[in-house]
Amino acid sequence: MTTPNAAVLLGEQRRYLLVRPTGFAGYLAAVLIALTVATGMATAWSAWNDYYVFEQFEQGSATVGPDEVVAAEDLRVALTLTNYGLYLLAGIAFITWLYQVRRNAEIFCDAPHRRSQRWVGWSWVVPIVNFWYPFQVVSDIWKASDPATPRRLDSLRTVPGSPQLGLWWGFWMASYAVSTLGGLVLVAPTVTPLDELRAVALVITAAEMLTAVAGVLIILCVHRIIRWQAQARA
Predict the structure, then answer these.
(1) What angle do CA 221, 18, 102 make, to 5 degrees?
(2) E strands, 22-168, where?
(3) Contact present, 140 and 156 (Cβ < 8 Å)
């Protein structure tokens, strides 16, 4: 006859059979994030290239004419559009993965998350709350997925947060701030077109460098959560 303790253990084991693999979606998101970072850095380079080509043109360089100026600008526009496209794809892939790991996280730990499942996606696009809701969503998934977190828990607030996630969100918000404030500055009239190109290059470079750091940090977090959720639980 099955003992009560054995029956409880069997029930726990069956609970974990509901866990679904998330590696494909997670690593697809990671690859797209990496490509977004790479094209972002390429966009920053093209902005400086656009600036230097126009500077040589204004100085009357014999090797730089109107065609070279147009070509440099077209390259920057093409890389910017490519970066935006990859950014959108990476965002869709990342949110899709978040839904999957959120479902698993609720199996690993009974403690309620701060935000409901519908906020896993909406938190990124709803104004104002998108400054902190996405971080809370990812942070709670991280805490619940950690094998060191007890399954039976009243609140995830008692689980220490991740400094790595904090850094990721800090760099991501800094990138957003630089892009937004930089865009407002660029709306103001500039002395010359060359000054405007230099300002554009500075803003893009600063924003993309911050985005690159945030991208590396979130890729590492994705890898960690995938590994945690793939571990066998007793």
Answers:
(1) 35
(2) none
(3) yes
Nearest to 18 by CA among 85, 105, 90: 105
User: What angle, 0 to 180 degrees and rounded to 10, lies between the N-to-C axes of helices 66-108 and 133-145?
Assistant: 50
CA atoms of 62 and 129, how far apart (whole Å):
53
Identify residue 22 by its one-letter amino acid code. Answer: T
Is the distance from CB of 18 to CB of 79 less than 8 angstroms?
no
| DSSP 8-state class, residue 158 | G
Residue 181 vs residues 6, 24, 109, 197: alpha-carbon distances, Å: 61, 36, 40, 16
Read off the pLDDT of residues 74-84 as tens digits, 9 standing for 90 and up.
999 999 999 99
- Dihedral of CA atoms 165, 169, 172, 174 in degrees, nearest 10, equals -130
CA distances from 195 to 81, 117, 189, 190 (A): 23, 47, 10, 6
Interatomic CA distance for residues 81 and 7, integer angstroms: 57
DSSP assigned state of 129: G
Q: Is 69 exposed, middle or buried (0-12, 13-18, 19+ CB in 10 A)?
A: middle
Helix, strand, coil % over all residues of the chain, rounded to 5: 75, 0, 25
Alpha carbon of 127 to those of 38, 57, 171, 211: distances in Å? 27, 43, 19, 20
Structure tokens at 80: 């910017």
pLDDT tens-digit readout, 86-141: 999 999 999 999 999 999 999 999 999 999 999 999 999 999 999 999 999 999 99
Residue 190 and residue 177: Cα distance in Å, rounded? 21
- Tokens standing for residue 73: 């600008």
